[in-house]
Every structure is written in structure tokens, then in C-alpha cells.
TrEMBL record:
<feature type="transmembrane region" description="Helical">
    <location>
        <begin position="68"/>
        <end position="89"/>
    </location>
</feature>
<dbReference type="Pfam" id="PF07690">
    <property type="entry name" value="MFS_1"/>
</dbReference>
<dbReference type="GO" id="GO:0022857">
    <property type="term" value="F:transmembrane transporter activity"/>
</dbReference>
<feature type="transmembrane region" description="Helical">
    <location>
        <begin position="6"/>
        <end position="25"/>
    </location>
</feature>
<protein>
    <recommendedName>
        <fullName>MFS general substrate transporter</fullName>
    </recommendedName>
</protein>
<dbReference type="InterPro" id="IPR050327">
    <property type="entry name" value="Proton-linked_MCT"/>
</dbReference>
<comment type="similarity">
    <text>Belongs to the major facilitator superfamily. Monocarboxylate porter (TC 2.A.1.13) family.</text>
</comment>
<feature type="transmembrane region" description="Helical">
    <location>
        <begin position="189"/>
        <end position="211"/>
    </location>
</feature>
<dbReference type="GO" id="GO:0016020">
    <property type="term" value="C:membrane"/>
</dbReference>
<dbReference type="InterPro" id="IPR011701">
    <property type="entry name" value="MFS"/>
</dbReference>
<feature type="transmembrane region" description="Helical">
    <location>
        <begin position="165"/>
        <end position="182"/>
    </location>
</feature>
<dbReference type="InterPro" id="IPR036259">
    <property type="entry name" value="MFS_trans_sf"/>
</dbReference>
<keyword id="KW-1133">Transmembrane helix</keyword>
<keyword id="KW-0812">Transmembrane</keyword>
<feature type="transmembrane region" description="Helical">
    <location>
        <begin position="122"/>
        <end position="145"/>
    </location>
</feature>
<keyword id="KW-0472">Membrane</keyword>
<feature type="transmembrane region" description="Helical">
    <location>
        <begin position="37"/>
        <end position="56"/>
    </location>
</feature>
């Protein structure tokens, strides 16, 4: 089991972060007016991939077992992500070169090897980091436990993979739509109000049911 902790836990986590955030950051260099829509399209790839990869992975596990399935997925990631990474370019490197020059000048003047960027010293940046850390722990959890919970409530692994696939398919559409709305003001605020109204009302309804089912 420790091999899975090392590979699927640490190595996959680091590798996926390097791939994902590089790909997400690249479009911001090329779009300004429609940046939200561009980001939505870029982020939608994970939903589209998950739509067919979730049932495909279960299909492979049933036929060639876990070891060869992981090898196949590794090769797939190498070809697709490796090929796509060759297409990532910065639009303008002048600002980056200017910042690098300032850092080198500061290092020579002060003798320091490590410099904390100015934007990382403020409270807004620290708040954003903490928010993203907590958010990742919460909103990613159902994705990884969706298939496991399917078997827990009596659904087959195959159907659980199908449910996971449709979840990613819905995510594919939602990412594009949310990116488009991010470029606007009234529509995104209206959508927030509607979605929040639905989820907020569900909390007051479902919580007493959960308490009654568990504790009488």
C-alpha cells in the first residue's frame, strides 16, 4: 500500500499540480477582455477528460487489473500532457525579465539569496493562500470518494464510474459557463444568488433529517 501513497499520493499530487497550474496560468497572458471565458475553456479540459477517463479506467481495471491500468494511464498522461506542455508560451517576457533583473540587483546589494516577492507580503495574498488550501480539501474530497461511496450504498463499481464520468461531464459545461459569466457582472451575481438560495435552503431541510436518522 505504501507504493500507492508514494506514487498516487505524493508523486501524482506534485505532478498534477505542476501540469494543471502551468496550463491554467498560460491563457492569462493572451487574453484580457475575455479572460474569464478563456480560463473556463482551459479549465474545462479536466472535466472533459474525467467524463471518459473515469468509466474507461474501471473498464481497464476489470480486464487488465490495476497494475497495467496505472501503467496505461501513466503513458497516456505522458503523451497528452507532455505534448500539450510544448504548446505553452508566455506572450510577453519583458516584465518577467525586469523583475529578474531587480532581484539580482537586490541580491548583490544586500547579500541575500532568497527574496520574498512584494505581493506575498500582504494580508490579501496570505488570505488567498489559506482560502485555496481549505477549499481544495473540501471540494475535491467527493471526487475521489464518489466511486467508493457508490459501492458502499450498493451500486456496482461500473455504475459508480459512470456517475463519476457524468459528474465530470457536468463540470466540463459548468467551467465554460462560469468562465463566460466571470467576464460579466449582473449575470454572475444572479447565478450566485440562485445557487446559494438552492444550497442554503437544502441545509435547513436536510440537517434535521440527518440528525433524526443518526440519533433518533
Amino acid at each position: 500500500l505504501w507504493h500507492l501513497y508514494l506514487s498516487q499520493g505524493i508523486l501524482f499530487g506534485v505532478g498534477a499540480s505542476l501540469v494543471y497550474f502551468s496550463a491554467i496560468a498560460a491563457p492569462t497572458h493572451w487574453f484580457k477582455k475575455k479572460r474569464g471565458l478563456a480560463m473556463g475553456i482551459a479549465a474545462s479540459g479536466s472535466g472533459l477528460g474525467g467524463f471518459f477517463l473515469a468509466p474507461l479506467t474501471q473498464f481497464l481495471i476489470d480486464r487488465i487489473e490495476v497494475q497495467w491500468t496505472l501503467r496505461a494511464l501513466g503513458l497516456y498522461s505522458l503523451v497528452v500532457c507532455g505534448g500539450a506542455s510544448l504548446l505553452l508560451f508566455e506572450r510577453d517576457r519583458s516584465e518577467r525579465e525586469e523583475q529578474r533583473s531587480e532581484k539580482e540587483h537586490y541580491k548583490k546589494a544586500t547579500g541575500r539569496r532568497f527574496i520574498v516577492p512584494k505581493y506575498a507580503k500582504g494580508l490579501p495574498f496570505a488570505t488567498l493562500v489559506v482560502f485555496q488550501f481549505v477549499l481544495s480539501m473540501s471540494y475535491l474530497t467527493p471526487i475521489y470518494f464518489m466511486e467508493l461511496y457508490s459501492t458502499h450504498i450498493g451500486i456496482s463499481k461500473q455504475m459508480g464510474a459512470v456517475i463519476n464520468g457524468w459528474f465530470n461531464g457536468a463540470s466540463f459545461l459548468a467551467r465554460i459557463v462560469s468562465g463566460f459569466l466571470a467576464d460579466l457582472s449582473f449575470p454572475i451575481y444572479l447565478v450566485f444568488a440562485i445557487v446559494y438560495g438552492i444550497t442554503f435552503s437544502g441545509i435547513t431541510t436536510v440537517t434535521p433529517v440527518i440528525v433524526a436518522n443518526q440519533y433518533g
